[in-house]
Structure formats: structure tokens, C-alpha cells
Amino acid sequence: MIAAKDKPTNLTPEEYFAWEEQQLEKHELINGQVYAMSGGSVNHSRIAIRFTTMFDTHLDASSCITGNSDLKVNIVGANNYIYPDASVTCDDRDKTTTQYITYPCLIVEVLSTSTEAYDRGGKFRMYRQNPALIDYLLVSSTSIEIDLYHKNDAGDWLIINYKAGDAIKLKSINLNFPIEQVYRGLTLEPGNGE
């Protein structure tokens, strides 16, 4: 995420939506400031597509909505709008908006060297404001590693680290899958993040 140069500041959501519609690239809105979204690696893209395809196929008979990296998430209680790599909402309130969702139960971020600290820290703090969020997946694009932040019934966040040979369990959408399903056919190069 990079601060957009020569862009207006202290935008309202309405001003942001109108302004972004005229831009060639995507931008996030955080505390009135606009931040340009950078592109990702081939692995980043393929992993994100695998998740959206898997979720959409699994939820085909449901009323849930699967979003890719073009679907903004509005942070509950704030005028912040963020683009995760994949998301799922099953909340009826999200069926009335056309430019974003607010109540995803599942969010996926594919990690890169430049965004990992933010995805684990500041971004997760914002996402946690959403009472509907149950599962937050942080996915390596350079090795077979996935960290799941799962909110249990008591409202506590647990961290589960998955590696090669493990099966991922997403309670938010009742889905289990082998971790290798995400990484099949990829050339993984540790230390070669975006």
C-alpha cells in the first residue's frame, strides 16, 4: 500500500467512490487518506484465484457472496474501505450495497514482503472491528504456510499455523481442504516475496 501522490485528502466515502471510479488503479480509503494498491506476483494472483474459486464452488447453493480483490470491505464503525484478496459474506445486510460489503465472515490476505507486517497488524486490527468476522487467513506466496486467525465462541482470537501435510478448517463457511490444494503447480521460492 502506497500513499497516492497529488490526491485529495480527508475524503468522504461518497467523494472517494466518485474519485476512484475515474482512476486506472484501485485505492483504499483509510481515515480520509487515499492509498494506491500495488500489483502482486504470479503466485499471489494464482493463490487468490484458488481461494475465490474454491469458496464460490463450495458456497454455490447458498446465499453467501464470494468476493475477489475487486470487492471492497467497509470497516465497521469507520469510513475505511479496504481491498482484501478474497472475502465471503453471508450477512443479508451486505446484499443491499453495490460497491462494498461490511460484514464478511471470512477474509483472505496473500502475504508479500511489503505488506506482511500491515496485514498481521494494522489491517487485522481494523478487520476485527467486524462482529461477523470469524476467520482471517494469512497465506504465504513463497512457502507452504498459512496462518488462520479464528474467533472462537468466547470471542477470543486463536492463531493456528498450517504447513505442508495439514488440512485447513474454516468454520466460518464449514469448509475443510488440504493445504496443498492452494499451492499445487506453483514454484515456491522462500525469501522471494513481492
Question: What do these coordinates show?
Answer:
The protein has five helices and 14 strands. By secondary structure, the chain is an alpha+beta fold. It is globular, with a radius of gyration of 16 Å. Helix content is 21%, strand content 29%. It has helices spanning 13-21, 42-58, 116-120, 122-127, 180-183, and strands at 2-3, 27-30, 33-36, 65-67, 72-74, 81-82, 86-89, 100-101, 106-110, 135-139, 145-151, 157-163, 167-170, 175-178. The protein starts with a strand and ends in an 11-residue tail after the last helix.
Supply database-style keywords.
5 helices; single chain; 14 strands; alpha+beta; disordered N terminus; three-stranded antiparallel sheet; 194 residues; six-stranded mixed sheet
Give the quaternary arrangement of the chains. Answer: single chain
Distance between the termini: 12 Å
Q: Using only CA atoms, what is the Rg?
A: 16 Å
Total count of strands: 14
Strand content: 25-35%
Q: Major β-sheet, in short? A: 6 strands, mixed
Structural class label: alpha+beta
General form = globular
**Helical residue percent?**
10-25%
**Low-confidence region ranges:** 1-5
Report the order of strands and helices: EHEEHEEEEEEHHEEEEEH
What does the average pLDDT come to?
92
Main β-sheet, spatial strand arrangement: 4-7-9-10-11-12
SSE blueprint and pairings:
Elements (H helix, E strand, L loop, with lengths): L1 E2 L9 H9 L5 E4 L2 E4 L5 H17 L6 E3 L4 E3 L6 E2 L3 E4 L10 E2 L4 E5 L5 H5 L1 H6 L7 E5 L5 E7 L5 E7 L3 E4 L4 E4 L1 H4 L11
Parallel strand pairs: 5-8, 9-10
Antiparallel strand pairs: 1-3, 2-3, 4-7, 5-6, 7-9, 10-11, 11-12, 13-14
